Amino acid sequence: SQTIHQWPATLVQPVGSPLSLECTVEGTSNPNLYWYRQAAGRGLQLLFYSVGIGQISSEVPQNLSASRPQDRQFILSSKKLLLSDSGFYLCAWAPDRIYEQYFGPGTRLTVT
Amino acid sequence: GIQVEQSPPDLILQEGANSTLRCNFSDSVNNLQWFHQNPWGQLINLFYIPSGTKQNGRLSATTVATERYSLLYISSSQTTDSGVYFCAVERNFNKFYFGSGTKLNVKP
Q1: Is B48 exposed, middle or buried (0-12, 13-18, 19+ CB in 10 A)?
Q2: What is the pLDDT of residues B82-98, one digit of tens each?
Q3: Å from A44 to nearest chain B CA?
Q4: Which residues, 6 or more positions from A18, have their beta carbon under 8 angstroms from its beta carbon?
Q5: What does the DSSP assignment read for chain B?
Q6: Of B40, B48, B100, Cβ closest to residue A100
Q7: Backbone angles phi and psi of A74, in degrees to 5
Q8: Among A43, A39, A26, which Cα is nearest to A102's?
Q9: How far A70 CA lies from chain B's nearest CA (Å)?
Q10: Which distant-in-sequence residues (6+ apart) come within 8 Å of B80 by Cβ?
Q11: Is the minimum CB–CB distance between B31 and chain A shorter than 8 Å?
Q12: Alpha helices in A5-47 (DSSP H)
């Protein structure tokens, strides 16, 4: 069966520091991968998606970037965090050409 | 993008009651999913239902794509059903749009 992992679970970072969040999927190949952000008490906003290694599409211009160095690895990064980057970050995967998403446990990021 | 509206925004039920959650969307979509977000933030798949009706235990869902809405039915609610229910639609491959959710509180 497929599983999706995210780490860290929680993170507190000062403004201006770098960020790296990692997501990995097991038990499948060539998945579509997604990064979402959820502000407190609100719905999810799609940030990035990837259909293959090195293929990244950005949905929202912002202070963040994403990379997919391996088939089942998706990384969310920032060079300098802003206070507005605080939130709950969720990674998801979907089988290729079947757009049914499965979510990881998420990372709670607080920028201080 | 597509507008996704969920209603009601908040719902309080007594254990054992039934409820219907609604998701309206502003344009045609390829896919639709319902999720339950538990108090720890985990999003749990409930239904993948671009059209038609599906049932899973006490939960069922119906999507009428031509009329741009979906309904989630919860019967005999339990305290463990508490959390936020999200509807998400997909259009133009990989562009997913979420509603703002229905927050459900089931009281014992």
Answers
A1: middle
A2: 999 999 999 876 788 99
A3: 6
A4: A77, A78, A79, A80, A81
A5: ---EEEE-SEEEEETT--EEEEEEESS--SEEEEEEE-TT--EEEEEE-SSEEEEETTEEEEEEGGGTEEEEEE-S--GGG-EEEEEEEEETTTEEEE---EEEEEE-
A6: B48
A7: -135, 130
A8: A26
A9: 19
A10: B106
A11: yes
A12: none
Residue A32 near residue A51 (C-beta atoms within 8 A): yes
* DSSP state at residue A39: -
| Residues A91, B43: Cα–Cα separation, whole Å | 10
pLDDT single digits (tens) B52-78? 999 999 999 999 999 999 999 999 999
Element spanning A108, H or E: strand A107-111
For residue B25, give both structure tokens: 């969307």
What amino acid is encoded at B24 in this protein?
Answer: N
Q: What tokens appear for A62 in the block?
A: 């912002």
